[in-house]
Amino acid sequence: MPRRVRDMLMAPKAPLFGPNVGALAFLSRQAPCAVVGSRAMSSVPFLNTPEALRQLANQPHTPCQCSLQHCAGWESVSEASWPAQQMQHVATLRDPDVYEPTFEEQHSNGTRYDSADAPVALKFFPYNRCDVYACGKCQQHALRYTEFGGYYVDPRARRLAAELITD
Description:
By secondary structure, the protein is α+β, with helices and mostly antiparallel strands. The protein is 15% helix and 19% strand. The protein has one domain. A hairpin with a 5-residue loop joins strand 4 (131-135) and strand 5 (141-148). The radius of gyration is 24 Å and the shape is elongated.
């Protein structure tokens, strides 16, 4: 038998470990994890009416120089340029009872997806996949969702304007 093969066969073996009984016992005592379709999916309130979102959007805010100022319409905002330190997750527009929200858009006035004057329609794409954030410096609210393309992931944001919220 060649020496190299013999050395491999004679090499010390890694010890085999049995199941981690303590970890299994701990996990069995935990509450079930929330999944899509569960109200426990998010720790922030679900806003399901235009009135509730308008009330949030009408809260006073001041001018701010954060990176969201250029987001009148949907804009790409990478994780590096998202001002995470000053943004607070305050609500979601994602219906916890809808597994796959529609991709249909609402543009009754001939606007486009990325138009600054496009309506904010809660039951339509992309608003039905959004979370609402508030800037800790100016209290301006912004919507955020992630666009998943065939070969990319693109976080996008849009400042919230109360006058554009529709039914």
